[in-house]
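ok so I'm stuck.
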Amino acid sequence: MIDLYTAATPNGHKASIALEELGLPYTLKVLDLTAGEQKRPEFLAINPNGRIPAIVDHEAGGFAVFESGAVLIYLAEKTGRLMPSDAQGRSRVLQWLMFQMGGVGPMMGQANVFFRYFPEKIPAVIDRYQGETKRLFRVLDGHLKDHEYLAGDYSIADIANWAWVRTHRWSGVDIDDLPHLKRWRDTIRARPAVQRGIESPPSTVDLTRDGDEAARRFSQDARKLMETGQSLKEDRR
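replied:
not stuck anymore, here's the structure
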């Protein structure tokens, strides 16, 4: 059995989608990020960085894994699925996984902060992160023009990138002019395991759209979380 410590975020859903695709039994342990549960000592013993997701594999003697990309690699290697075993095939998957970890996730995350959560709207900053997000989307679209999936067969690279790309509207970035990315997004969204994964746990707001009261409350909670993080930094000075 695997314990999954998570919340309804793109990084959290990366882990739950992979677990569902692999058919691994897991116990969902949802952390309330606005209450700071990810900073409590019992969770910091699992992930010293105080971020979700993290897993504890009880079949492996309670082995803990943190960082969403590391979780995906661990699960793929544990099962021998969602990543090829040959060196070149594995490298292709890891290249696109790193593309998400180093590019898509950070740029969309910053777009979310300044477009949605930051109290002061700074157009130049918003344009910077939305523009870089769109550039990365164009890279994906160009590659997907000639490939069904990112790295050969469906893999953890697709899971990682899809979990973020699906929320493009929340970042204020449109993909209507990227037909290959849209095709890929919709193909993966139709997978039953993916549908189960994004409900583990379900989000209080639909990050694939915006403009309603739930979205406003979600943004307020995220702003509070940012302010809490700042307070913790100040306390440590």
